[in-house]
């Protein structure tokens, strides 16, 4: 059975990309199913794709044409790793070639922009869940995005109303993430 954590990463990847990342997911699952990578390798692969997509969204990069970009990444992996035995490392290397840098993300946040449109809510939720997982680890709750008591919202992660010093600390932590 596919590890529960892998399913959580696949769900996050889907929230970011709505389908274009499927070739990367399928190749990771095929390598895992065929025994070329273990559970840890599968999780590293999926987490790398999730991080790549999160960084693309946070930097303001367009996610289109993402499928062709991912197919090029797979082509690079296949050239360097014909046996797929080092799929996680090859995937990470290929993703880094077009992954936005920390400075790209921080620069993107210097300019105000609207992250909260209806069409972006799945991506915002994926980012908030990623922060929650990073902060809470195994105890993280996969809450949906919204305004209800049992849903994530921006104040849950980045309070808009609090003491000035604390708010600045939250903003600095958010930039680092």
SSE order: HHHHHHHHH
Q: What low-confidence regions span 5 or more consecutive residues with pLDDT below 50?
A: none
Return the average pLDDT rounded to an integer.
81
- Quote the distance from N terminus to C terminus: 32 Å
Strand content: under 5%
Round the Cα radius of gyration to an integer and report it.
17 Å
Q: Tally of extended strands?
A: 0
What is the count of DSSP helices, taking H or I runs of 4+ residues? Answer: 9
Structural class: mainly alpha
Tell the overall outline. globular
Largest sheet: none
Helix content: 55-70%
Could you characterize the architecture of this molecule?
The protein has 177 residues and is an all-alpha fold. 64% of the residues lie in helices and 0% in strands. The protein contains 9 helices and no strands. The protein has helices at 4-17, 22-33, 39-59, 66-80, 87-96, 102-110, 121-136, 154-157, 164-176. α2 (22-33) runs parallel beside α4 and α3 (39-59) packs parallel to α6. It starts with a helix and ends with a helix.
